[in-house]
Structure formats: C-alpha cells, structure tokens
Amino acid sequence: MRINFVGLLVGAGLLVLPVGGSLEAVAGDSTKRRYSFFAPTPDHLMRDMSTDRPDATESPFTIDAGHAQVETNIFGFSRSTRDSDGFRTDTYEIGTTNIRIGVTSFAELNLVWQPYGVVQTSSLLSGPASRSSGIGSVDIRGKINLWGNDLFGDLGTSAFALLPFVTLPTDRSNDVSAAGFSAGLIVPFALQLSDKIGFGLNAGFVSTKSEETSSYRTEYLVTAAVSYEWTDRLGSYYEVGVAFETDDPRGDAVFLGTGLTYAVNSNTQLDIGLNVGVSPAADRINPFIGISRRF
User: Pfam families in the record, alphabetically (predicted)?
Assistant: First the structure.
C-alpha cells in the first residue's frame, strides 16, 4: 500500500500554525532577509547551532546566510542480518561529510560525499566472499525553510521545511557508491514540546533506477525522533525509522536509534550514536561517531 506521507505531514504542520497566523508571519525575522551568501548574517543575529546529524531525522532549520557548517561522520560501522543463503554484509564508513552553505535567510545548499568506505560480504559456510572499497556517492541537496527558522524555541512552536536531493554515482562497480542516479524529497518538521524536549518528524521518498528492469522504483521513508537537553551542552535523542516498499524480499526495514550530543562551544558539536535493526531487512547494528563545526 502506498501512503502519501508528505501530504499527511504538510497537514500536520498546518494544524500547529498559530491561530490567525500565516506562512509569512511565522517565516522568521524579516530583518534577516537582507542577508545572503554575499552579505553574511552578523554573528549577533545568528541562530543557535542546529545539525542534521547524528540522527537520521533531518532538521527543518537552515544555516544562516553567508555561513557554512561541516558535519562529518568520522567513523561508522554497520552489519546486516544474514539473508536466506547465510550471507551478511559489513560496511565501514569513513569521513562522510555534509557541507551546508547558507544561501539566504531561509535556504541552504548541501554537498554530501563519502571519501572512503569498505563493503565486505561473508558466508556462514565459506567465510569471506568478497571485499570492495573506494569512494562513495555524491548527494546534492537543497533545504528551504517555510517557517520556524528564527521563531522556534518556545513551547508549542514549530518549524517546517522541504529538502529535495539527487544522488550521483561516482563508481558504479565498487559497492560503496550508489550504482545509479536517484532523486527524492524529504519533508522535515519539528515541534517544541517543552523547554527541554523536542520532537522531529520526517517523511519522504526516493526514486531509484532498477539495474534489472531499467525502470524506476520508489521507496518511502519515515523517521521520528525525540530529543532531550540534559544540560546546556549535553543532549540525547531516541528515534525510530522505517523504509517502506524496498526491493528487499525480507520486507520493510525498521530500526531504533539513540545517541548523545555534546556542544564543545557555540560552533562545535561532538556526537555518538547507535542504530539497531528490529526487522530482518534492516542492518542489525550500526554504531557511529561524528563532529560538526560551524564557520
């Protein structure tokens, strides 16, 4: 069954708009619209640092105009569950980086690239079966905040954005890069539940060309996360994610995730996290560690 998750999320976001409000009224501080990539936002007007990692749930907030933020997965490891033939796959991810550039007060451009990775497949009967390594795909993304960029934080406030993306293969044969071109859309939404608790919700889809049939298939993605601020520096999150209508014969991929974030200062954040698969199609385990830095 195909579900219009994007439509449902748009509807949910409109329900939490202030009574009598409009998209223009909640889009943010109009005085910041004068700033751009070529006329950077002054430091004293910049928003608090917000990252799109470590959880899989993207934030609806953009980078202030004229500034950049680099978010890097220093090291990640994932191990799949064994398939019906007894094979499993171990993946090592090194240095995957998202470079986020503030273009306007409400829009940013992203470039995501994995400089190196290793994919190793093994069998219960024969041991290691194959090993590939090399560079990963390049993702080009744009994020447009529709409301909440500068007015988010008080109880009941919300934020909403659109995040279209394309994935470009770099090496179709190394098993690290995507094998073909794909494109999709993520719709990030956030709601402030209390002074310490935040809620994030993503819905979206990705369309990928099938190698077997040369036709495109669509996979639907939904994630939800709750964050908690223990102190001004230390935070944690708890997440669930589902990928629907995948081409995996084992069905939908469902995972649970948790992690910690630590703000070294107003422009630097460290993080560590762990995802655990709860369905056969999801990776069984996925620990990772990363760093984010704003400039």
Answer: Phenol_MetA_deg (PF13557)
Could you report the per-residue pLDDT of 87-138, keeping only the tens digit for each?
A: 899 999 999 999 999 999 999 999 999 999 999 998 877 766 789 999 999 9
* Cβ atoms of 226 and 242 closer than 8 Å: no
Contact between 88 and 272 (Cβ < 8 Å): no
Domain containing residue 97: CATH number: 2.40.160.40
E strands along the chain, which residues? 68-80, 87-102, 107-113, 116-123, 127-134, 138-147, 158-168, 182-192, 197-209, 216-229, 234-244, 253-265, 268-277, 283-294
What is the Cα–Cα distance from 76 to 232, expressed in whole angstroms? 27
Kindly tell me the sign of the dihedral angle through the C-alpha atoms of 158, 159, 162, 167: negative
CA distance 28 to 61: 11
Total-model pTM: 0.86
Q: How many CB atoms lie within 10 A of CB 201?
A: 21
State which residues form the domain around 255. 5-294
Cβ contact 287:252 at 8 Å:
no
> What token pair was written down for 85?
């033939």
Written in H, E and C, the secondary structure of 205-243 is EEEEECCCCCCEEEEEEEEEEEEEECCCCEEEEEEEEEE
Neighbours of 74 (CB within 10 A): 16
- Spatial contact of 274 and 249, defined as CB atoms under 8 Å apart: no
The conformation of residue 32, written as its DSSP 8-state character, comes to: G
Q: Is the pLDDT of residue 32 over 80?
A: yes
Q: What percent of the chain has a predicted confidence (pLDDT) above 70?
A: 87
CA atoms lying within 13 Å on the CB side of residue 102: 28
**Under 8 Å CB-to-CB from 122, ≥6 apart: which residues?**
87, 88, 90, 128, 129
Structure tokens at 7: 């439509």
C-alpha distance from residue 2 to each of 61, 155, 189, 214 (Å): 28, 34, 21, 21
